[in-house]
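Let us walk through a complete example step by step. Step one is to write down the protein sequence. Step two is to encode the small molecule, S-adenosylmethionine, as a SMILES string so that its atoms and bonds are unambiguous. Step three, shown after the inputs, is the structure prediction itself.
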Amino acid sequence: MKEIQPGVYRKGAKMYTKAASSQKVYGEKHVQEDGETYREWNPNRSKAGAAIENGVDLEIQQEDTVLYLGAASGTTVSHFSDILEQGFIFAVEYSDTVIRSLVDLAEQRENIAPILGNARNPEEYSDLVTECDIVFQDISQSDQAEIFIKNAEKYLKKDGTALLTVKAQSISTARPAEEVFGEVKEKLTDTFEIEEEALLEPYEKDHLFLKMKLS
Ligand SMILES: C[S@@+](CC[C@H](N)C(=O)[O-])C[C@H]1O[C@@H](n2cnc3c(N)ncnc32)[C@H](O)[C@@H]1O
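Step three: the predicted structure of the complex.
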């Protein structure tokens, strides 16, 4: 295994994180090497995984605290949890059915706080969440940029890293994705400096991944 980013490994064409729990989360393959168990990270099931495959350095350090918006059942959260050996994830999800699997996942691991909350109202979870090194969002809503800005302004440390997945079709099905991405970037530039960007094809169609810092 070759470490390509902190806590992220590659062997051949596959990407892995070091398993913090022996439990499988989404049917992923587990591989033993040098007395360690590694979990395959499938970029077709995780936009953060797709971003790494497409060359983005997520800049997640193993001691970081992460605010994760749109946690769903915890597919990507589980890989972040593996990476954050000394860190912690606040995982926000607003569907009370989907969050059940996330709660199960958090029971197997030490570093995940599942939060049932609406990311549109960041004040809802201000008693639970601290300032974070990373704010990550994967939410398919027409106001995804506005949701992200509110959360980053409230919870991201000054020198922290903002990671955003933009799904063009959630904003407009009528306009070309490139036009939608341009409009989203325009909205973001009052608050952020864009450091890296990548389209997520071939893993996801019409998705843009942005890495930013507060300006
Ligand atoms: C594309 S899925 C996330 C997949 C997940 N990031 C992963 O890779 O494992 C988007 C999730 O965002 C949640 N969501 C949508 N709007 C939300 C909101 N306003 N607040 C919190 N969660 C929201 C949805 O319920 C859904 O589970």
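Step four is interpretation. Residues 1 and 41 are 13 Å apart (CA to CA).
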